[in-house]
């Protein structure tokens, strides 16, 4: 029955170690992060099969420490960032596919088009630049004519025609106020 409390201990320590390693590690899985997270998962399961919980906690702590050190070195030195994480690769330039980079990424035109559709882009010619980021996500910038109209752009356009906008009333409560101003004891009115 010892394996039951050991399992709970390992789950708690695993959550604690992942929390210490940071949100970036969980949300933006780079190659190095993926290897470390898989390794931690494998290590955490080992004591249930084997016998040493302490050795497992130490090993998982070492993995997380190395991950934090690698992320710190990447922040300080561009050379290490390029070496460990890499750079974004341009796959669309001025509305044209960059076939050389698509081949380098082993990404087919159909796979790229699928990513574009998922991002709500229906025409490659609407893109000034399209990239595959280091985490595998699609990055893009629209051409001037394809950019959506923002409220700020609309206001500028209307002001050019002589329309004046009324002064805004006082700032309405925001769901971000708690984060910005510190934690409060009650939920915002909008969420109750």
Automatic annotation (TrEMBL):
It holds the Pfam family DUF421. It comes from Fictibacillus arsenicus. GO terms for cellular component: plasma membrane. This is YetF C-terminal domain-containing protein. Belongs to the UPF0702 family. InterPro entries: DUF421 (IPR007353), UPF0702_alpha/beta_dom_sf (IPR023090). The lineage of its organism: Bacteria, Bacillati, Bacillota, Bacilli, Bacillales. Keywords: Cell membrane, Membrane, Transmembrane, Transmembrane helix. It is found in: Cell membrane.
């Amino acid at each position: 029955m010892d394996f039951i409390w050991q399992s709970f201990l390992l789950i708690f320590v695993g959550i604690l170690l992942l929390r210490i390693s940071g949100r970036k590690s969980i949300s933006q899985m780079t190659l190095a992060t993926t290897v470390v997270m898989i390794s931690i998962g494998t290590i955490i399961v080992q004591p249930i099969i084997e016998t040493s919980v302490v050795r497992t906690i130490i090993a998982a702590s070492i993995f997380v420490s190395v991950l934090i050190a690698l992320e710190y070195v990447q922040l300080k030195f561009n050379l290490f960032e390029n070496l460990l994480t890499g750079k974004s690769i341009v796959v669309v330039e001025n509305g044209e596919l960059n076939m050389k980079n698509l081949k380098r990424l082993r990404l087919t035109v159909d796979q790229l088009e699928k990513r574009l559709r998922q991002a709500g882009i229906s025409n490659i010619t609407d893109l000034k630049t399209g990239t595959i980021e280091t985490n595998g996500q699609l990055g893009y910038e629209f051409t001037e004519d394809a950019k959506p109209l923002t409220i700020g752009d609309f206001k500028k356009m209307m002001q050019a025609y002589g329309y004046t906008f009324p002064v805004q009333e006082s700032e309405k409560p925001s769901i971000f106020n708690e984060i910005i101003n510190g934690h409060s004891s009650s939920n915002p009115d909008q969420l109750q």
